[in-house]
Amino acid sequence: MLRIPKGYDSVSKTFRLPMDLVEKMEKLASENKISLNKLVVQCLIYAIDNIMV
Questions:
Q1: Model pTM score
Q2: DSSP-assigned letter for residue 32
Q3: Which residue of 2, 9, 23, 25 is most buried, as measured by CB atoms within 10 A?
Q4: Are 41 and 3 spatial neighbours (Cβ–Cβ below 8 Å)?
Q5: What confidence tier does 8 reach under pLDDT thresholds 50, 70, 90?
């Protein structure tokens, strides 16, 4: 699993996400004992690093 470095600069943003996706992400975050925010960051980093252009 990706590791997010501590102490990184951040900015607050608001996104509208499908409820079923949020429920799955909350469950996954809970099962892995990480915050939902950390999970979202990990998913975004993975997606950006692995996107096919």
A1: 0.78
A2: T
A3: 25
A4: no
A5: confident
Q: Which residues contact 42 (CB under 8 A, 6 or more apart)?
A: 1, 2, 4
**pLDDT(3) > 70:** no
Two tokens, residue 20: 């079923």
For the stretch 37-46, contacts whose Cβ atoms lie closer than 8 Å and that sit 24 or more positions apart, written own/partner, are 38/4, 41/4, 42/1, 42/2, 42/4, 45/2, 45/4, 46/2
Query: Is the distance from CB of 44 to CB of 8 less than 8 angstroms?
Result: no
Q: What confidence category does residue 43 fall into, taking pLDDT thresholds of 50, 70 and 90?
A: very high
